[in-house]
Design a protein that fits this description.
The complex is a heterodimer of chains A (about 950) and B (about 425).
Chain A lengths: L2 H13 L6 E2 L18 H8 L13 H13 L5 H9 L5 H11 L1 H16 L9 H13 L4 H10 L12 H4 L5 H13 L19 H11 L2 E8 L2 E8 L5 E4 L7 E4 L9 E2 L9 E3 L8 E2 L3 H10 L4 H16 L19 H13 L4 H9 L19 H100 L4 H34 L1 H152 L3 H88 L1 H8 L7 E2 L2 H11 L2 H16 L4 H4 L2 H30 L14 H9 L1 H6 L7 H7 L3 H13 L5 H13 L3 H13 L2 H4 E2 L1
Antiparallel strand pairs in A: 1-6, 2-3, 4-5, 7-8, 9-10
Chain B lengths: L9 H16 L14 H4 L8 E8 L22 E3 L6 E3 L3 H4 L5 E7 L6 H10 L12 H9 L9 E5 L5 E2 L13 E4 L15 H19 L5 H18 L11 H7 L3 H14 L4 E7 L7 H25 L6 E6 L3 E2 L11 E2 L3 E6 L7 E3 L1 E2 L6 E3 L4 H11 L7 E4 L2 E4 L14
Parallel strand pairs in B: 1-8, 1-9, 4-13, 5-7, 5-8
Antiparallel strand pairs in B: 2-3, 4-12, 6-7, 9-12, 10-11, 14-15, 16-17
Helix pairs in contact in B: 4-11, 8-9, 9-10
The chains are: A mainly alpha (about 950), B alpha/beta (about 425).
Chain lengths: ~950, ~425
C-alpha cells in the first residue's frame, strides 16, 4: 500500500466518513525501471560501476592498510597491536570478510554508528528537551536492531513526544524547537540531500534545481507543526502538535509582485491535495492551550510516509550517499547536501542503484556497510602504484569516445529544456488563473471560519443558559423536597419554633428560586432561538465556501495536471543535465590524466634526445682526443725546425765572421805588399827587402786562398740556414693546419655540449610540467574512488583512537569486565549462551564508554564544529596543536602505564622489535627499514629510555599519519 | 533622586553656543587631527597596511543619557551635568571627565535605533549586524575581521575576546565562516590554554619528540599532500610560534608605569592587554565591561562603573593616538541597547533601543564629531538615524573591507554584511 492510500485510510477512519484525498506524490524513481536484483550482491554492482578504465590496474591495499581503515570506519577505533599481529599472520583468504563481520557484530560498531548518526542528525545541538542519554539509548537500540533507515526517519518525524517510550525520537524536532525554517532546511538537507537555504527567498541563483517552490513546499509542511507545553503527571512537558495546514503564498525577492502559492510538497514532487473540510471539521483534537492538537490530515505524517515509502528517489539516494560517505569519507555526491544535477555523483548510475538497493533490501544499513567494506573501491590503496602512470594513456582513448557522446547529448538536453520551458509557461498560466480564485476561496473560508466561531459562541451560550436553568431546577427540586419533608415534620411536631422557622425559610427560598426559573427558562429559549441566525449564517457561509471551492477545484486540478507534467519534464531535463554534467566532470578528469600521459611521452622523447646529444658530445670529444697526438707531433716538428734554424743561423753568423776576418787579413797583406813594392822601387833590389817581399807575397797568396776558402764555407753555411728556414716555414704551416683542425674538433664538442644543456633544460621543464600534471592525479583518482581517500578522524574517532593505542580503553574495559564478573558472574550455562554473551559485551562497552566519555567533551570542543553547523568540514588550528603538545591529558596517557605502547617499548631491549611494536600499536603497520633505523638511532641517542619511549609514542600520536585515516 | 539643577549656568550656555556653532558647520565635521598626536617612531613598528578593530562591549546596556548623549535639565535626564569636551560644542556626561578630554579622537553616533529590547537578541544584532534568524546563524564582527584582516602568516589568533572572568576556550561565534575564525577567549585576560610546556617535558625532550613527529609526518605527506594536510602541518608551526609569543598575553611584562597608567582593576588590565595584542597584529579584540543593566539605582551604578571605564578607556584612546595606532585601529564602544529616557520607581532605567548611542574612533571614522541626534527628551532619533545593519557595514568599511561583497563558503556566496543595509557615508572620511 502506498503512502497516500495509507494516509487516506487513516484520515477517513479518523473523520468517520470517506474523504476525497489524492496525495499525488510523483514517484520520480518509479519512472525508471530499477536494475537492482536482490540476488546480485551490492559489492558486485559497486565493482562494476566504479571499475577502473580498461587498461588500468591498481592492486588492492595491503592487509595492514585495510585493517586500520575498516576498523576506524566500522568500530571508530583501530585494532590493538596484538589484534593487528593476529590479522596480519592469518592466512585465511576470507580473512577480510571475517574481519568485517566481526567488526559489524561488535559493541564498538554499534556505538560508532549510533554516534555518527547522532552527529549527522543533530549536529551537536544542545539537548533542550531530550537528554543525550535518552537519545543515544534510542539510537543504540536502533542500530543494534538494524532498524531500517526509513523506519528510523519515520519515527523521528512522526512521534509527538508524549509517550516516554518513543519520546527520544522526537528530539529531532523538539531540539530544533520545531522552528519551521530550521526544520524545513534540515529535512531538506539531511533527508533529501538538498540545502535549499538560498531558495528560502528566491530560486537559487547558483543551483538551477533548488527552487523556492521546493523550499516553500517543505515549509508548508514544517510550519504546520509546533510545540505545546502539556501537563503530564503534574510536569510541564514540551510536545509536538500539528495544525491543519493551509497554502503558503510567497514571492521571490528578485521579482516582487509575482505571487505564487503552494501546499505541502516534497522536493521534486507534486503538491499534496488535501480534502475539503469545512471550518471546525479539520481536527480530531482541536488546538487549545496545553492541548496537543491533532488534525484529521497531518502534513507531518504525510511527509514522513511519502518520503520513506521507498518511492522517493531523492530520499533513497540521499541515504545511500550519506552512508557511503561514512565509509569513504566523501559521498558519491559531495558536498552531501548538494544533491542536484549541476553537481553530479561520481557515478550517477551507481547512486541510483544504491538507492534502489536500499529500497529492495528494506533499507538494510548493516548489509549496506558490509557490502561497501568488501567492495573493490573500498579496498583500493592509498598510494598510486608507479606502474599505473603509463596506463593513464587509457584515459585518452576514453576521453575521445566520450567527447563524441557529449555532442549527441547536447541535442537531447536542448530538446528536453525546450519542453521544460513550455511546461513552465503553462504552469505559470495555470497558477496565475488559480491565484485570484483561490484567494477569494481563502477569504470565503475565513468568513466561514468566522461564522463557525460565532455559531460555536452561540452554541456555548445556549449550553450555558441550559446549564444555568438545569442547575436552578435542581435547586428548586431540592428545596421542594426539603419543604415537603419539613411540612411532615411540622405535622409530627407542631409548634416547634425551630421547625416552623426552618419551614418558613425553606418555603421562602423555594418561592424565590421558583420565581427565578421563568427568566432562566426564557433566557434558554431565547438563546436557543438565537442559534438559528448563526446556524443559518454558517450554512450560508459554508454554501458560499462550497461554491468557491467548486470554482477553485477545476483550476486547482488544472494546476496539478500542469504540475505533474512539469515534474515529469523537469525529471527528464534533470536526467539529461545530470548525464551531461557527469560527462563533463569525467572528461575534465580524463583530460587531466591524458595530459599526464602526453607529457610523459614528450618526457620519453626528450630523454632520448638527451641521450643522443650526449653521444655526440662523446664522439666529438673522442675526435679531439684522437687528434691530440697529431697535434703533439706537429708541435715537436715545428720545435725541431726552429732549433735547426737557430743552429744554422748561429753557424752562418760564425762562418760569416770568420770569412770577414780572413778577408781583412788578406786585404791587409795585399796593402802591406803594395807598400813594400813602393819601398823596393825606391830602394831597388834590396835583397832583404826582396826576400821579405817574397815571404810576404806568399803569405798574402795563402791569405787569399784562406779567405776564399772561408768565404765558401760561409756561403755554404748560409745555404744551410736558408734550408733550415724553409723547413721551419713548412713546419709552421703544418702547425697552423693542425691547430685549425683541433679548434674545429673542439668546437664540435662545444656545440654538442651546448645542445645537451638545451635539451636537458627542456627536460627539466617537462619534468616540472609532468610533476604539476601528475600532482592532481592521485586526488582525481581518489575522488573517483580509484584510490583511497585521505579522511580526517572525527573528534570521536580521534579520542577513541588515542584511548585505544595508549591502552587506556583496554585497561578500563578490563576493569569493567572484572567488576561485572565479580558483581554478577555468569554461570557456566550462561557462558554458553551467545545472547547472554552479546548482552554482556554491550554492557561492558557501555560502562567503559560511560567511564571515559567525559574526555570526549574536550575533543569535541577543540576538534568539532559549532553546534547546528555542518560537522564534516576539516579544520586545523593552533589550539589543537597546543592541546596535543601541552595538554595534561595526552601527556599523561603517553606516560608508561600498564601494558601500553610506551611501557612495551621500554621493556623490549631489541630496538628493531621496539620499532615494530611502536608502529604496529599506533599506526597499525610494520615500520619500513628506514623507520626501524630511525627509531633505533633515536633510542640509542636518547639516554633515558623511558623518556625516549614517551617521545616516540607522542611523535607518532601527533603525526599526520595518525590524524588521518586513508 | 532626580535632581533639577539650575539652567542658564555659564558653563551650560557656553557649551550650547559652541554646540550651535558646530552644528552650523555641519555635524560630522572633523575637528582636530591625528597628525599632531601621532608618534611615527612607534607607528613605524606596525605593519603599515594592517587594520584592526577593538570593541568595548558595555554589557547589560549602557545608559546613553549618563554617557554620550546627556540631556541635562530635562525632567528625565538624570542628576548629572553635561560637561564640555576637547571639542568645542560637543558635551558628554560629567561621568566621563577624562574621556571628554579625548573627544577630539572620538565620534559619537547619537542616532542609533535598533528596535530590539531583549539582551540576547540585542547583543546578537549589534555583534553580527543582523537580526537573529531561526534559519541560520551569522558570524560575529570578530570572525569577519579575523577572516578579512588577519595577516595570513600570523601565528596569533585573529579573533580574541577578553572575558571578564572564567576560563578560556573557543567561542561559538563564527557561524558558517567555520571554527577557524571562532574567538579565542581569554578568561579574565589570561593567556590561551596549553601555551606553556608542562614541567614534565624538558626542552630537549620536547625538541626530540617534535623532530620525530615532523619526520614521520613528512614521510607520510610525501605520499599525498592536500590543502587539508597543509593546514594540519601549519597548525603545529603556528602553535610553536604562539608559544614563543606567549609574552604578548602577559601584561605584567609591561613597564610598571604603564600598568599604573591603565589602572590595576580588571578593565585597566584588559585594556592594556588589548593594546599589546593589537600592537602584535591581532586583528580583532573584544573586551567587556560589566554590568550596566541598571533597572535599579541606575545613577549610582553608572557613577561606579563609568568611573572605572572613564580612566581606562581614556588612557587607551590617548595611548593608541600617541602610538600612531588610531590610523589603523577602529575603536567601537557598543552595548546591546541604551536605557530608557525616563526613571522608574527604583531610580533605575530600563531597556531602550529606539534612541541610543555608539562611540567610535580611528581609521576612516571622523575625529571629534557627533553624528545624528535625539530629541530634547532623548525619546526619539531626530537626525541621521542608523541601525545595527548600517553600523556593521560602517565598521568594516572603516577598516577597508568592502562590506557589500560576499564570502565564498563551500561554493556558496554569503554576503559579508546584511545586503539590505548600507554603510553610513557620513561616518566615513
Amino acid at each position: 500500500m502506498n503512502a497516500s492510500l495509507r494516509l487516506l485510510r487513516r484520515a477517513a477512519t479518523a473523520a468517520g466518513r470517506p474523504l476525497m484525498l489524492t496525495a499525488s506524490l510523483l514517484l520520480v524513481a518509479g519512472l525508471f525501471c530499477t536494475s537492482v536484483s536482490a540476488q546480485e550482491p551490492l559489492r558486485t554492482i559497486i565493482n562494476r560501476e566504479l571499475a577502473l578504465p580498461p587498461g588500468m590496474t591498481i592492486p588492492a591495499a595491503g592487509d595492514a592498510e585495510f585493517l586500520r581503515r575498516v576498523s576506524l570506519d566500522l568500530a571508530g577505533m583501530p585494532p590493538s597491536a596484538d589484534e593487528a599481529r593476529r590479522f596480519l599472520a592469518d592466512t585465511d583468504p576470507a580473512k577480510r570478510e571475517k574481519l568485517v563481520d566481526q567488526l559489524l557484530a561488535s559493541a564498538e560498531h554499534t556505538r560508532h554508528l549510533a554516534s555518527s548518526l547522532d552527529v549527522m542528525l543533530m549536529e551537536r545541538r544542545p539537548n533542550t528537551n531530550v537528554s543525550q542519554d535518552d537519545w543515544m539509548k534510542w539510537l543504540l537500540h536502533s542500530v543494534r536492531a538494524n532498524k531500517p533507515w526509513n523506519v528510523l526517519v519515520r519515527e523521528m518525524l512522526t512521534v509527538d513526544g508524549e509517550n516516554p517510550e518513543t519520546r527520544p525520537a522526537a528530539r529531532f524536532l523538539l531540539d530544533r524547537a520545531a522552528e519551521p525554517n530550521v526544520v524545513a532546511r534540515d529535512i531538506g538537507r539531511l533527508f533529501f540531500g538538498r540545502d535549499m537555504q538560498c531558495a528560502q527567498c528566491h530560486d537559487s541563483p547558483i543551483v538551477s534545481d533548488f527552487l523556492q517552490k521546493d523550499y516553500q513546499g517543505l515549509l508548508a509542511v514544517s510550519s504546520a507543526t509546533y510545540t505545546v507545553v502539556k501537563k503530564i503527571d503534574g510536569k510541564d512537558v514540551t510536545v509536538l502538535a500539528d495544525r491543519s495546514g493551509s497554502d503558503l503564498t510567497f514571492e521571490s525577492v528578485f521579482s516582487k509582485g509575482n505571487a505564487h502559492r503552494t501546499g505541502a510538497r516534497l522536493p521534486g514532487g507534486t503538491t499534496l491535495t488535501e480534502p475539503f473540510l469545512i471550518p471546525g471539521d479539520e481536527y480530531i483534537v482541536a488546538p487549545a492551550d496545553g492541548v496537543r492538537a491533532v488534525p484529521k490530515l497531518s502534513r507531518r505524517q504525510w511527509l514522513a510516509e511519502s518520503a520513506t515509502s521507498g518511492s522517493h528517489r531523492l530520499f533513497n539516494e540521499n541515504a545511500a550517499n550519506r552512508f557511503w560517505s561514512l565509509m569513504f569519507g566523501r559521498g558519491l555526491v559531495q558536498p552531501l547536501d548538494m544533491l542536484h544535477p549541476d553537481n553530479p555523483a561520481v557515478s550517477p548510475a551507481l547512486l541510483r542503484q544504491l538507492g534502489d538497493w536500499l529500497v529492495a533490501t528494506n533499507y538494510d544499513l548493516r548489509t549496506f556497510l558490509r557490502e561497501v567494506a568488501l567492495s573493490e573501491p573500498y579496498q583500493r590503496p592509498f598510494d598510486l602504484p608507479a606502474e599505473t602512470f603509463p596506463q593513464l594513456v587509457a584515459a585518452q582513448k576514453e576521453s575521445e569516445q566520450l567527447t563524441g557522446v557529449k555532442v549527441s547529448m547536447e541535442a537531447s538536453l536542448t530538446a528536453t529544456n525546450q519542453t521544460l520551458e513550455a511546461l513552465e509557461t503553462a504552469y505559470s498560466a495555470a497558477e496565475t488563473s488559480l491565484l485570484p480564485i483561490a484567494a477569494e476561496r481563502d477569504k470565503v473560508r475565513g468568513q466561514a471560519a468566522e461564522a463557525r466561531k460565532k455559531l460555536d459562541e452561540a452554541q456555548k451560550a445556549v449550553n450555558d443558559a441550559n446549564a444555568a436553568l438545569n442547575m436552578k431546577n435542581k435547586i428548586a427540586e431540592a428545596l421542594a423536597a426539603s419543604a415537603a419533608s419539613l411540612k411532615q415534620v411540622k405535622a409530627a411536631i407542631p409548634d416547634d419554633a425551630a421547625v416552623i422557622s426552618a419551614e418558613q425559610v425553606i418555603s421562602a427560598r423555594f418561592m424565590a428560586v421558583q420565581n427565578e426559573l421563568p427568566a432562566l427558562q426564557q433566557a434558554a429559549t431565547e438563546k436557543t432561538t438565537a442559534l438559528a441566525a448563526p446556524t443559518d449564517a454558517l450554512k450560508a457561509a459554508v454554501g458560499l465556501l462550497e461554491a468557491a471551492q467548486q470554482k477553485t477545484n477545476p483550476l486547482h486540478e488544472a494546476l496539478l495536471a500542469a504540475e505533474a507534467q512539469l515534474v515529469n519534464a523537469r525529471a527528464a531535463y534533470q536526467d539529461a543535465q545530470l548525464q551531461q554534467t557527469s560527462l563533463e566532470t569525467r572528461l575534465a578528469a580524463l583530460t587531466r590524466m591524458s595530459a599526464v600521459s602526453t607529457i610523459q611521452r614528450s618526457m620519453e622523447e626528450i630523454a632520448q634526445s638527451v641521450a643522443s646529444q650526449k653521444a655526440e658530445v662523446t664522439t666529438a670529444t673522442q675526435a679531439v682526443h684522437d687528434f691530440a697526438s697529431t697535434a703533439v707531433a706537429a708541435a715537436a716538428e715545428l720545435k725541431a725546425a726552429a732549433n735547426q734554424r737557430d743552429a744554422m743561423q748561429k753557424m752562418a753568423l760564425q762562418e760569416g765572421a770568420k770569412s770577414d776576418l780572413e778577408k781583412t787579413k788578406s786585404a791587409r797583406l795585399t796593402e802591406a805588399l803594395a807598400a813594400l813594392g813602393r819601398v823596393e822601387e825606391l830602394l831597388g833590389g834590396d835583397t832583404s827587402l826582396q826576400q821579405t817581399g817574397a815571404a810576404l807575397s806568399s803569405r798574402a797568396e795563402a791569405a787569399v786562398v784562406a779567405a776564399d776558402t772561408q768565404q765558401k764555407m760561409a756561403a755554404a753555411a748560409m745555404t744551410q740556414l736558408q734550408q733550415a728556414e724553409e723547413s721551419m716555414k713548412t713546419a709552421l704551416v703544418q702547425m697552423a693546419e693542425t691547430e685549425a683542425e683541433m679548434k674545429r674538433r673542439q668546437e664540435m664538442v662545444e656545440v654538442a655540449s651546448k645542445s645537451v644543456a638545451e635539451v636537458q633544460k627542456r627536460q627539466s621543464e617537462i619534468q616540472s610540467e609532468l610533476e604539476s600534471a601528475t600532482a592532481p592525479v592521485p586526488g582525481d583518482l581518489a575522488s573517483r574512488f580509484a584510490l583511497s581517500q585521505l579522511k580526517a578522524l572525527t573528534p570521536e574517532q580521534l579520542c577513541w583512537t588515542i584511548f585505544r593505542v595508549t591502552t587506556v580503553y583496554d585497561r578500563h574495559r578490563a576493569g569493567e569486565i572484572a567488576e561485572l564478573d565479580k558483581v554478577s558472574p555468569l554461570t557456566e550455562q550462561q557462558k554458553q549462551d551467545p545472547a547472554v554473551i552479546a548482552a554482556r559485551q554491550l554492557q561492558v562497552e557501555q560502562q567503559t564508554w560511560d567511564k571515559l566519555k567525559g574526555n570526549l567533551g574536550q575533543y569535541v570542543a577543540i576538534y568539532g564544529g559549532a553546534p547546528g553547523q555542518p560537522q564534516g568540514d576539516f579544520y586545523a588550528s593552533a589550539d589543537q596543536a597546543l592541546f596535543t603538545a601541552n595538554g595534561s591529558a595526552i601527556n599523561s596517557w603517553v606516560a608508561p602505564a600498564g601494558d601500553n605502547a610506551t611501557e612495551r617499548i621500554i621493556r623490549i631491549a631489541d630496538n628493531r622489535l621496539a620499532a615494530e611494536e611502536l608502529y604496529l600499536g599506533i599506526l597499525t603497520r610494520m615500520p619500513t627499514e628506514e623507520e626501524v633505523q630511525e627509531v633505533t638511532a633515536f633510542l640509542t641517542q636518547r639516554t633515558d629510555r623511558s623518556k625516549a619511549a614517551q617521545e616516540l609514542v607522542w611523535g607518532l600520536l601527533s603525526s599526520a599519519e595518525f590524524r588521518f585515516n586513508r | 533622586m532626580t535632581l533639577r539643577y539650575p539652567c542658564n549656568t555659564t558653563a551650560h550656555s557656553l557649551a550650547r553656543r559652541q554646540f550651535l556653532g558646530t552644528m552650523a558647520a555641519g555635524a560630522g565635521t572633523i575637528v582636530g587631527g591625528l597628525g599632531a598626536f601621532a608618534n611615527p617612531a612607534i607607528a613605524a613598528g606596525l605593519k603599515a597596511d594592517q587594520k584592526r578593530i577593538v570593541v568595548f562591549n558595555m554589557h547589560g546596556g549602557l545608559s546613553q543619557l549618563e554617557s554620550w548623549d546627556p540631556k541635562p535639565g530635562v525632567e528625565t535626564g538624570g542628576p548629572f551635568l553635561a560637561i564640555p569636551t576637547s571639542v568645542p560644542g560637543i558635551q558628554v556626561s560629567e561621568l566621563l571627565p577624562k574621556t571628554a578630554m579625548q573627544m577630539h579622537h572620538l565620534c559619537l553616533v547619537r542616532g542609533v535605533n535598533t528596535s530590539e529590547d531583549d539582551h540576547g537578541k540585542g547583543a546578537y544584532l549589534m555583534l553580527t549586524g543582523r537580526r537573529q534568524s531561526p534559519a541560520g546563524e551569522f558570524p560575529q564582527l570578530g570572525a569577519v575581521a579575523a577572516k578579512t584582516l588577519n595577516p595570513a602568516d600570523s601565528a596569533l589568533p585573529g579573533h580574541i575576546v577578553i572575558t571578564p572572568g572564567g576560563g578560556g576556550g573557543r567561542g561559538n561565534d563564527a557561524a558558517w565562516l567555520g571554527p577557524k575564525y571562532s574567538s579565542v577567549q581569554l578568561g579574565n585576560g589570561n593567556p590561551p590554554p596549553n601555551t606553556v610546556r608542562p614541567d614534565s617535558i624538558p626542552a630537549d625532550s620536547d625538541q626530540a619528540r617534535q623532530e620525530f613527529r615532523r619526520k614521520v609526518s613528512e614521510r607520510f605527506l610525501n605520499r599525498r599532500r592536500t590543502a587539508v594536510t597543509e593546514a594540519f602541518t601549519y597548525s603545529f608551526e603556528q602553535a610553536e610560534k604562539l608559544m614563543n609569543q606567549r609574552d604578548i598575553f602577559d601584561v605584567t611584562k609591561e613597564p610598571a608605569k604603564e600598568i599604573e597608567k591603565y589602572g590595576t582593576h580588571d578593565l585597566g588590565r584588559h585594556c592594556l592587554l588589548a593594546r599589546r595584542l593589537l600592537e602584535n597584529e591581532v586583528s580583532f579584540v573584544q573586551l567587556s565591561h560589566s554590568n550596566y543593566d541598571t533597572h535599579n539605582e541606575n545613577f549610582n551604578f553608572h557613577i561606579e562603573q563609568l568611573g572605572e571605564f572613564d580612566s581606562a578607556f581614556s588612557t587607551f584612546v590617548a595611548d593608541l593616538a600617541d602610538r600612531g595606532m588610531l590610523e589603523s585601529t577602529l575603536i567601537v564602544v557598543l552595548s546591546e541597547f541604551g536605557r530608557t529616557p525616563n526613571v522608574n520607581q527604583y531610580y533605575g532605567r530600563d531597556h531602550w533601543s529606539r534612541a541610543w548611542s555608539v562611540c567610535m574612533a580611528g581609521c576612516r571614522v571622523p575625529r571629534g564629531a557627533a553624528f545624528g541626534a535625539t530629541n530634547d527628551k532623548g525619546t526619539e532619533v531626530v537626525d541621521k538615524q542608523v541601525d545595527h545593519g548600517s553600523l556593521f557595514h560602517t565598521y568594516l568599511q572603516a577598516v577597508g573591507v568592502d562590506s557589500t561583497g560576499n564570502f565564498l563558503v563551500d561554493g556558496r556566496e554569503m554576503p559579508i554584511a546584511d545586503p539590505a543595509a548600507k554603510p553610513i557615508e557620513g561616518l566615513l572620511t
